[in-house]
Structures are given as C-alpha cells and as structure tokens.
Amino acid sequence: MYSFQSLDKEQFPFPTLYRQKEEYHQITDYLQFYKLDVSNLQYEFGFFDHRSHSFFMQRFRPENKRGTIVVLHGYYDHSATLKHAIRYFTNMKYEVICYDLQGHGLSTGEKATIKEFSQYREAFSHFIHTYCQKEFPPFVVAHSTGAGVVVDYLLKDSHACPFRHVFFLAPLVRMKGWQLAALSIPLLFPYVKSFKRIFRHNSSDKAYLQEVQRDPLQFTRLPLEWIKAVQAWTRTLDNTRASTQEVTFIQGNKDKTVLHRYNLPFLQKKFPHSSCIIVDGGDHQLLNEKEIFRNIVLQKIEKVVQTKEKE
Known about the structure:
Elements: E1 18-19, H1 25-33, E2 41-50, E3 53-62, E4 67-72, H2 83-91, E5 94-99, H3 118-131, E6 139-143, H4 145-156, E7 165-169, H5 178-188, E8 194-196, H6 206-214, E9 221-223, H7 224-236, E10 247-252, H8 260-270, E11 274-279, H9 291-310
Parallel strand pairs: 4-5, 4-6, 6-7, 7-10, 10-11
Antiparallel strand pairs: 1-2, 2-3, 3-5, 8-9
C-alpha cells in the first residue's frame, strides 16, 4: 500500500500554489503513482482552506494556454482518477484546474461523507470565485457527484458565475435503488453507520477497476450519513428555478449507478439550454472507460469547446 502521509498541508499553506521542485519528493511520488504526466506542463499544487477543511488543489498549465477547464470528480474518487481527461485537455492547450472534494483524496474531512450536500456547493463556490478569473469564464467538466455539486451551485447560488459551457457526465440526482434506500435508511441509521463498500463494475476497463481497488486514496465503507445527505438534497431541487447556463449532458446507457432515466429529463427541465449525448455501451465511469468509449466522450467535449470558441 502506497502512503502519501508526507504530503502535509502545513508544508504547502494557503493561498500559495507551489510549482513542482525536486525537494518536494512526495508530490513526485504522487504524480508517478497515479501516472499523472506533467511533462511539458507548468504544474502547481497546494491546499486552500474553506470553513473547517483544507482542500488539495492542482493546476496543469500548457504553454500558450487557450483557456481554462475545471474538472470535478465523483463520489469515492479524487482528481488523480481523471488523469486521462487532464492529459487530453492540456493537449488541447487548455489549463486544467481541479481539487479533491472534502472527505476525498488528499483533502481533509470525514471519509466519503458529508452532513449536508450544500457543504459541497459552498466549497465549490469559494473555489470558483477565488481561482477562476471572471473575465475569462472557464469550461466545467463534472462527473456524477461532482456534477451534482455544480448543479446545486448553478441552481441555488445567487452569486453563481456563468461558465463558457458545462459538461455534466453521468450526473447525480437519484441513485440506483433510491426507493429502497429512502425506506430503509431511517430505520437503519440509529443502529448502522456504514456498510462495506462493494466495488462495482462501473467501467468496461478491467485495468481501471483493478486500479481502484489498489488505490490508497479510495475508501472501503459506504457511510449512511452520505446517503441521507443526498436524499435530502434531491428533495430541495424540486422548487429551484431553471438556470440559463448552457450545458451538455453526457450519459452512458449501461450506467447502473445513477438513475439516468429519471435524472436526465429532470435536469433538462432545470437547464432548458441543454443538449444530451448518449454513449451507446458506456457505463458510469465515462472518463475511465475503455479507450473506445472514453475517446467518444472526450472528442464530443472537444467538439463543443471548439464550437464555443468560434462564437
């Protein structure tokens, strides 16, 4: 098992992002372990503080950057699991900025849980307003729970910044089995706090599935508190006003993690300026699928980005 305990936030305090240097051997270990290729890039990392948490943040900047893409990971994951997307977007000459959600990756917080979903939104809002220039709105690519965070931000934050375009990949609203969870969680919660995580086959890439089980920054429990927070959050979305933000939904039709047949129609009403791309054969982990499916997703994103650049 690999350890990154030496990557201590006290060595990299807010608000500075540190360029990679040889003496920061622990970040080199991190990059090598997760196969994050920063060759020919200006790479920076650090922690930013918000409320009671410290968030691990990274910036991947190519020479002569054309713009910025913010990427946000899903539940259980962390920024390094998006290495394919990071490399693809930097090859497009876009700077990529990302951070680990609280309780995920190298950010602080109780593992894989949250008391209220709004805490994700508040941290994201702080991140966007602090690190993204308003005069150059970024593109946003958000997966699953990360997509839910951006949905919450756009629908509820009165100071929400407009983005050039937002891509919601397998967005979270309702999860598979939500009805059973709604009935059972209130009965179980006083007695059971978490279940053992089942590592589901949510990608057709077997190598990726093996990597997840070996990943020291993944978590092996499913806290019921997190499920309760998601259930409470979904109920708050019903009465929100529609957003004018232009978005693209990208969804695999073999996804058995989120209830996409409900989620997509629901979100399309909340985001009327939207389009939807269905990836035939794609599962939940669209950015970690077999290369054939992953390239479909990334090429679709690139095409929309190129179109927006011409407008």
